[in-house]
Amino acid sequence: MSRIVAVHGVNQYDPARGPEEAADRLGAAWARALGHNLPRPLGGNDLAMAYYGDLVHAARPVRGAQGTREDIDQLTPEAVDAVLRWGELLGVSTQEAQGRALAPVRWIADAVARRYGLDHDLVRQFVARFFPDLLAYLHTPARKQVQQRLADAVARQRPRVLIAHSLGSVVAYDTLWQRTDLKVDVLVTIGSPLAMPDVVLPHLQHPGGFRSGSRPPGAAAWINIADPGDLVAVPQPLTDTFRGVTSCLSSGIGAFRMHKAGGYLRSAATAKAVLPYLDRAL
After folding, report:
1. What is the pLDDT of residues 201-235, one digit of tens each?
2. Distance CA 156, CA 18 (A)
3. Nearest CA to 23 among 32, 36, 38, 13?
4. Which residues make up the CATH 3.40.50 domain(s) of the chain?
5. Are 119 and 231 within 8 A, CB to CB?
6. I want to staple 113 with a disulfide (CB 3.0 to 4.6 A). Which of 120, 145, 160, 188 is the partner?
7. Rg (CA), the chain
8. Is 3.40.50 the CATH number for 4-58+140-277?
9. CB 62 within 8 A of CB 69
10. Peptide bond before 235: cis, by omega within 30 degrees of 0?
């Protein structure tokens, strides 16, 4: 058994490895990063990764004969609409973008980069990867497969901590609501888009509709950590949208960096969140 089960975010498909090997490799990287601010490094059996990158990758559509799964100009109409809604949320006017039939998504990505002082190419790459993965999870049969992977990991490992990054926080939230028999002492969400209106929030799987979001019954506590500069963890704070969030931390930990997990995992805020739930020997 592992004391921590982790759920990764987008863009983690590893074509050179099968699901089990990919999970082990990514889990080891997360354990190293998470142990950075703990009293001692995490051991090889302390963290188990619930890997689903292969499932969402296979479910992502390819639009057009020349399109690829990472071509910002070949996103599906559904992904284009999600990017437009995201741009609006970040204060970017989408009127001009909507008039650009050939490259509205590229225009939004560049406008966000200019507004927040980010590298244009990196923002384009992020958009081309994040939204197809997100929509593949939310709107294809892969959703049930992804949830089953996580449910199996939690049932097998019986962890105290479930830590979930980015899209993984949506997977964790959905799974804990769908499988109320699963129990963890704390759900730690980092860089979470759960509250993103139009794009994510209306599609969450919990009873009572999207306006009734709350801590899943299987999580005794819920800690959310969001960097103020994270352009995916919006709107903040999560407590404005969800009931039962035990603690909502927002600190400038420099975690965005195109929404990678490493900054969050190495932060003192995340170490402080998980440490009380680990063995005293740690």
Report:
1. 999 998 876 566 899 999 999 999 998 888 999 99
2. 20
3. 13
4. 4-58+140-277
5. no
6. 120
7. 18
8. yes
9. yes
10. yes
Q: How many CA atoms lie within 13 Å of 206's alpha carbon, on the beta-carbon side? A: 23
Question: Contacts by 91-98 with C-beta closer than 8 Å and gap 24+?
Answer: 91/115
Would you mind telling me the total number of residues written for the chain in this entry? 282
| Average pLDDT rounded to a whole number, residues 88-105 | 74
Which pTM was predicted? 0.93
Closest CA to 50 of 136, 126, 157, 140: 157
State the sign of the Cα–Cα–Cα–Cα dihedral 196, 202, 205, 209.
positive
CA dihedral of residues 242, 126, 203, 99 (deg, nearest 10)? 110
What is the rounded CA–CA span in Å between residue 11 and residue 133? Answer: 7
Bond from prior residue into 237 cis (ω within 30 degrees of 0):
yes
Q: What token pair was written down for 200?
A: 């994510």
Let me know if 152 is exposed, middle or buried by CB neighbors in 10 A (0-12, 13-18, 19+).
exposed
